[in-house]
Amino acid sequence: MLKTYHGSCHCGAVRFEADIDLEAGTGKCNCSICTKRRNWGALLKPEAFRLLQGAEALSDYSFGTHQGSHRFCSKCGCAPFSTGDVPEIGGAFVSVQVASLDDASDEELAAAPVRYSNGRDNAWWEAPAETRYL
To answer: Can you give the pLDDT of all 134 residues of the chain as single tens digits?
Structure first.
């Protein structure tokens, strides 16, 4: 069910709201940054995401093909969302870190299906052989 969630970084300088259907699924991947951050995201179209405050506090990091901008708060270092444009996954996107959602219940998070992607080998449409560490 589509629901408007509110989220933030750890210190609260960055705040957003996003229309997310957690029941439709979330994702984890084994690429280098997702593995190090223990990334768990919900992929959205940009129009489903609204930055409410903190644009001036955001820094970003991009690497590799520079198709994604990994946004993080310059005050506390938390990365509540990333943005990008990857034609192979449908174009422009926002990936909201579900752990940054302030009003998602433990039960909603536990019930959210997880899809795994093999980003390490640029085979995003395939699940990696091992996912227990993600």
So the answer is: 999 999 999 999 999 999 999 999 999 999 888 899 999 999 999 999 999 999 999 999 877 766 778 899 999 999 999 999 888 778 899 999 999 999 999 999 999 999 999 989 988 789 999 999 88
Compute the distance between CA of residue 42 and CA of residue 53 in angstroms, rounded to an integer.
20
Tokens 């395939």 found at? 126
Phi-psi region of 38 (alpha: psi -120 to 50; beta: other; left: phi over 0): left
Q: Is the pTM of this model over 0.85?
A: yes
Residues 6+ apart with CB under 8 A from 54: 9, 13, 14, 15, 73
Among the listed residues 3, 8, 7, 39, the one whose alpha carbon sits nearest the alpha carbon of residue 21:
3
